[in-house]
Amino acid sequence: SNGNNINWPPEFCPGVPWKGLQNIDP
Amino acid sequence: QEPLDATMLASAPLMDQKQLLGERLYPLIQAYHPNLAGKITGMLLEMDNTELLHMLESPESLHAKVDEAIAVLKAHQAK
After folding, report:
1. How far is CA B43 from the centre of its chain?
2. pLDDT at A26 exceeding the cut of 70
3. Contacts of residue B73 in chain A, CB cutoff 8 Å?
4. Cβ contact (<8 Å) for B38 and A12?
């Protein structure tokens, strides 16, 4: 993924397993 | 909550490391920016874990990075 993705940045939610940039749809 | 140190962190898988750091950073960031805390934490988690550990120990450096992240986020959203 890249910085131009509209959904960037991925949002961290406490208690929810963090998947980092994989959270973002390509 | 136990303090987080580099040794403890290194023994966890990579995504768990980010999770541990995120769980600690989030409440601190939430104190500055309740509405953007999730996004800002997500952005900061892209940084090196050593830097994130330093930010947990140094409110000044955390605050500086949070301000930086907000500037980047606003510029991104303005596109």
Report:
1. 7
2. no
3. 9
4. yes
Out of A3, A9, A15, whose CB is closest to B42? A9
Q: What is the CA radius of gyration of chain A?
A: 9
The full DSSP string for A1-26 is: --TT-TTPSPPP-TTS---GGGGS--
pLDDT level of residue B55 (50, 70, 90 thresholds): very high
> In this predicted model, what pLDDT tens digit does every residue of B12-34 receive, in sequence order?
888 899 999 999 999 999 999 99
Q: Amino acid letter at A10? A: P
In this predicted structure, the answer to whether residue B8 has a pLDDT above a threshold of 80 is yes
Residue contact A17–B18, C-beta within 8 A:
no
Would the ipTM clear 0.90, i.e. be above it? no
Interface residues of A toward B, Cβ cutoff 8 Å, are 3-4, 8-15, 17-21, 23
Indicate yes or no: CB of B46 within 8 angstroms of CB of A21: yes
Taking the C-alpha atoms of residue B30 and residue B54, their distance in angstroms, rounded to an integer, is: 18
